[in-house]
Design brief:
single chain; 408 residues; 9-stranded mixed beta sheet; 49% helix
Length: 408
């Protein structure tokens, strides 16, 4: 039977497609945000031991309350080298293959799936392509206007090219169109061909998870995937299950938490057969508990959806779905300040909270209660802790592995 209280935890965090945030800032950001957790939950935090490798950045976190202490081996999975390969491609290549990706996701039925499951995500999908097309149309209209005013075709063409150059030097980057085009290009390639750089890394990490699940002294192994990192997390655990179908079932439990997930971004594509098979294998595993957190205000995730059902997969062992409100995690002034910043709202899933709430990233990865127990508890960890940070209630260990969608 899995433990509900944790003294040692091994965490693999997989971020989304985020070339904006360099890996060098991963630990400083973690330190900054966990300081908010420290104040909110009245706990003490100590961080040390930063190590860097091609596959991951890792450090140690010790958290403590009046009657508990947890040691967390935190591992930030790197795939920034993949982002860099896309950023190094020419703008012409990225524009061309970006629109090929657009057509692919439309013709494959994925876009129709986005409209059906969450129209906000459909708008997010359309945004970079419609915006870029509108900018190109503006450049064309300006060149036509120049032709009417000056009567010179060469001048009009020159003006058009100048406006296009200004677009590529300005709005292309200011509006993050470059990043979003790369994101969809990567996603299309991942659906059809995979990515060799990621696959080799995941093979190494999967072997590490299997070894840790059978031979380490931790109480819980937590794989947490944010945004498109949830897709990579499925891939990682699928590889671990290929190495050991019983991983997590015999000695050390494995918990998979997806937050602000983009699983349906890939899973609704008609060509993502390989990925859907991986999803089904992870969901069927008796040694892996899977919780999926979704937020209404975050347009970059799929809110109020059952991922397995939407992908037409068996729902017998579907993930536990938790619906959370980001507004309840933050002070009102803070929430009002960021509520129109969709990227910042999406990142609240990996940020510190101002208030104790059902969902708290740092309580999941560094708290004394297992991530599984927190996911299954109606109010998360809120009623388990006193004002002074003491653990006052331990949840029962005999809980259902799957209990369906819980709203809060």
């Amino acid at each position: 039977m899995a433990r509900t209280t944790i003294a040692k935890r091994l965490v693999f965090h997989i971020g989304g497609y985020d070339p904006i945030t360099p890996p060098a800032s991963a630990q400083p950001r973690f330190v900054r945000e966990i300081a908010r957790f420290e104040l909110t939950w009245s706990v003490k935090v100590f961080i040390d031991g930063l190590q860097d490798s091609a596959d991951q950045k890792k450090w140690n976190v010790t958290t403590a309350g009046p009657n508990w202490q947890v040691e967390t081996d935190y591992r930030f999975v790197r795939w920034d080298d993949v982002f860099e390969t896309f950023k190094r491609r020419t703008i012409g290549y990225r524009v061309l293959f970006g629109f090929i990706a657009f057509l692919d996701f439309v013709l494959s039925g994925a876009f129709r799936g986005y409209v059906r499951t969450n129209w906000h995500y459909a708008v997010f999908f359309l945004y970079p392509f419609v915006t870029f097309a509108a900018l190109i149309l503006a450049a064309f209209l300006i060149s036509v206007l120049a032709l009417k005013i000056g009567g010179s075709v060469p001048v009009a063409i020159g003006v058009g090219f100048l406006v296009l150059a200004a677009i590529l030097l300005g709005p292309w980057r200011w509006l993050h169109l470059d990043t979003l085009f790369d994101d969809w290009i990567f996603s299309r390639e991942y659906v059809w061909y995979g990515n060799s750089m990621i696959e080799q890394r995941l093979d190494r990490l999967a072997a590490g998870i299997v070894a840790a699940a059978s031979g380490s002294d931790v109480d819980e192994i937590l794989v947490i995937g944010h945004s498109l990192g949830a897709v990579i997390g499925v891939d990682l655990l699928n590889r671990a299950l290929r190495l050991d179908p019983a991983v997590g079932a015999s000695k050390i439990p494995v918990t998979f938490i997806t937050i602000g997930s983009s699983i349906l971004k890939i899973g609704l594509h008609r060509g993502a057969t390989r990925f859907r098979e991986a999803v089904e294998r992870v969901a069927r595993s008796r040694g892996i508990f899977w919780g999926d957190y979704q937020a209404r205000i975050d347009i970059l995730n799929f809110y109020n959806t059952y991922p397995m059902a939407e992908m037409a997969l068996t729902t017998e062992n579907e993930p536990i779905v938790r619906l959370v409100e980001i507004g309840r995690m933050l002070e009102h002034a803070m929430y009002r300040r960021i509520r129109l910043n969709f990227y910042r709202l999406h990142c609240q899933f990996i940020s510190g909270n101002d208030r104790r709430a059902v969902y708290d990233y740092f309580m999941l990865v560094c708290g004394p209660v297992s991530a599984k127990s927190q996911t299954l508890a109606q109010d998360g960890a809120v009623s388990m802790f006193g004002d002074d940070g003491a653990l006052i209630r331990v949840p029962p260990s005999a809980v259902s592995r799957r209990s369906g969608l819980i709203k809060k």
